[in-house]
Every structure is written in structure tokens, then in C-alpha cells.
Amino acid sequence: MLFKPDYTAADVTPEHLFLNRRQLIAGAAALAAGPALAAGPYSTDETPNTYEAITSYNNYYEFGYDKTDPAQYAGALTTDPWSIKVDGLVDNPGTYALADLIGDMPIEERIYRFRCVEAWSMIIPWQGFQLSALLNKLGVQAGAKYVSFETLVRPSEMRGQNGGSIQWPYREGLRLDEAMHPLAFMATGLYGKPLPNQSGAPIRLVVPWKYGFKSAKALVRISLTETQPVTTWNTLAANEYGFYANVNPEVDHPRWSQATERRVGGGLFAGRIDTQMFNGYGDQVASLYSGQDLTKDY
Ligand SMILES: Nc1nc2c(c(=O)[nH]1)N[C@H]1C(S)=C(S)[C@@H](COP(=O)(O)O)O[C@H]1N2
Ligand SMILES: [Mo]
């Protein structure tokens, strides 16, 4: 199966579910465990999509191919207890209970743009912590050049894993300098609530300057490697999905343009908006790729 371009506009923001920024931050502070949250320097001040939109229009092939399948079927997934295996070139390898691994991470809010390779986008208020904080705690060894991520395999609860053309687990990866960048985030919450299952509970990656497929959900393994990890979409169609997958309006997908996108919830008559280089995070991340030809390293 392959991604399809997104050219429909069937989702209008339900006005009664709209939260303004003030309510959002107050709500997040009240509901999330730990210290009060504030939007930091890494957050956009664009209006977030509604909780309803963010949790009803998803890609999560472990539960099916339709955008509504994750909301319908991901409730079947048991997310507690949860453990994560850490291996490879790391000082503290092991299989950790989730709370033991991340219980001491400083939780903060990040309101990020999110841009799917299918050319739809949202604004999402995540809670979580910088991936770099976890990697520093684990102790990255000299020689590690990449981080790979794997999603849970549990066909008894993930109905989409009983067929289809994806070889499970869903795999993603980052170069180590990308993973250590302050924008690279591990999300455990959304709108001040624990991450819902369809959004990747109990913990997922969020890499806002890359296409959404890099942001793997329901992580059970993190490996530090010397060689570039094998990744799911690159394996399925290498000419369509590169390892880097940086949002780039100048490099079209072979089957559709990446110059513009549809902001989900923008309204039936809203026009498409221009896609920004690195999804608008170029000031922060462009230097990671100096000297690289991004038409080749797409
Ligand atoms: N395990 C897993 N992670 C995944 C996917 C998936 O199918 N399985 N889909 C990816 C894609 S294509 C996108 S666009 C985002 C969607 O995240 P969202 O549903 O929270 O918006 O999740 C990414 N992470
Ligand atoms: Mo996507």
C-alpha cells in the first residue's frame, strides 16, 4: 500500500470544540502531572487544531488504512504495562518499564506544526520531553551515528498487523545530530491529557521539520547504531520516501506536488497554504544539512 495525496476538505472545525490559546495553556497546566506548562521558544503561536480533529483524523496502519480507523480501533490496545528496550551503542542498555525510563524527564508543552507527506497539516499541542534528555541519560557511546525506533508488534490488539504489505514492526530512524536537536520530541500527552491511543500512546516520536511518517508511535525499542537504520516507508518505496524526509516544498513527491498543503480544519472554502521549507523550522534545523544536496538526500 502507498500513501495517497490529500485533496479533500471534509473536516470543518467544530466551533464548540474550539479552545483558545489561553484556555489551552490553563487546561494543560491543570491536567498534566508535574510543573505548570508554558509555551516555550520552540512553540508556534498559530491556533492549534481541535482535540477532536487531532484524534479523529490519523495515520496509524497498525489499526487500518483509513483516517478514521485509528480512532475506531486503537482503543483495543493495552498501553499499561509498557516497556521499552534500549540497545546498541549506549551505556545503559536494558528493557525498562516506561515509568522507570522516563519518570524523571522534564515535561513541557510544544505546540508544533505537523505536516504529513500526503500534504495535509495540523497544529498540535503536545506534552512530553526532548529526545536529547533521554539519550543523554542513556549515555550515547562514541561510534553511534543514528537512532532507530520501533513500534509495538501485537496483532491480537492491532488488527492491521494481520495483513497488508508493511513488514512489522513499523520502523523509523534519525541521524544522531537530528535526534539530539532540541526540536526532536517524545510526546506523552496531547492537550494536557495522556496521549490517546490513536495518537501513539503511551509514547511517540515527534519530529516537526520532517514529514509525519518519521514520527513513529507506540515505541517499544530505541537503538543506537553505527549504520543508517532500515525504515518502513523507505523500504516500501525508496523512490517516494527517503530516509531524511525533511519537509521540502521544492522536492515533489513522484505522484503529487509538495508545494502546498491543506490545513485540516481550515474550513471547506479555505485555500491551500504554502508548504514551508523544513515545515517552517529552517532557522533552527537548516544547519544540520549544510553541504548536503536535499534533492538527493530527500
Ligand atoms: N507506528 C506507526 N507510527 C506512525 C504511523 C503508522 O502508521 N504507524 N503513521 C505515521 C504517519 S504517516 C503520520 S502522518 C503520523 C500521523 O500522526 P497522527 O495520526 O497523530 O496525526 O504518524 C506516523 N507514525
Ligand atoms: Mo503521513
Write a concise synopsis of the structure shown.
The chain is an alpha+beta fold and 298 residues long. The protein has helices at 21-31, 51-54, 69-73, 98-102, 131-138, 176-179, 232-236, 282-285, and strands spanning 83-88, 94-97, 108-115, 120-130, 146-151, 171-175, 185-190, 193-194, 204-206, 219-225, 260-263, 273-274. It contains 8 helices and 12 strands.
Structure description:
- With 298 residues, the chain is α+β, with helices and mostly antiparallel strands.
- It has a single domain, classed as Oxidoreductase, molybdopterin-binding domain (Sulfite Oxidase, Chain A, domain 2), CATH 3.90.420.
- Helix content is 15%, strand content 21%.
- It has eight helices and twelve strands.
- The chain has helices spanning 21-31, 51-54, 69-73, 98-102, 131-138, 176-179, 232-236, 282-285, and strands at 83-88, 94-97, 108-115, 120-130, 146-151, 171-175, 185-190, 193-194, 204-206, 219-225, 260-263, 273-274.
- The strands form two sheets. Strands 3, 4, 7, 8, 9, 11 and 12 form a seven-stranded mixed beta sheet that branches.
- It starts with 20 loop residues before the first helix and ends in a 13-residue tail after the last helix.
- Mean pLDDT is 91; it is low at 8-37.
- It binds the ligand Nc1nc2c(c(=O)[nH]1)N[C@H]1C(S)=C(S)[C@@H](COP(=O)(O)O)O[C@H]1N2 and molybdenum atom (MO).
Write the layout of secondary structure elements.
Blueprint: H1 21-31, H2 51-54, H3 69-73, E1 83-88, E2 94-97, H4 98-102, E3 108-115, E4 120-130, H5 131-138, E5 146-151, E6 171-175, H6 176-179, E7 185-190, E8 193-194, E9 204-206, E10 219-225, H7 232-236, E11 260-263, E12 273-274, H8 282-285
Parallel strand pairs: 1-10, 4-11
Antiparallel strand pairs: 1-2, 3-4, 4-7, 5-6, 5-10, 7-8, 7-9, 11-12
Bound molecules: ligand MTE and molybdenum atom (MO).
Residues 59, 116-118, 212-213 line the site of molybdenum atom.
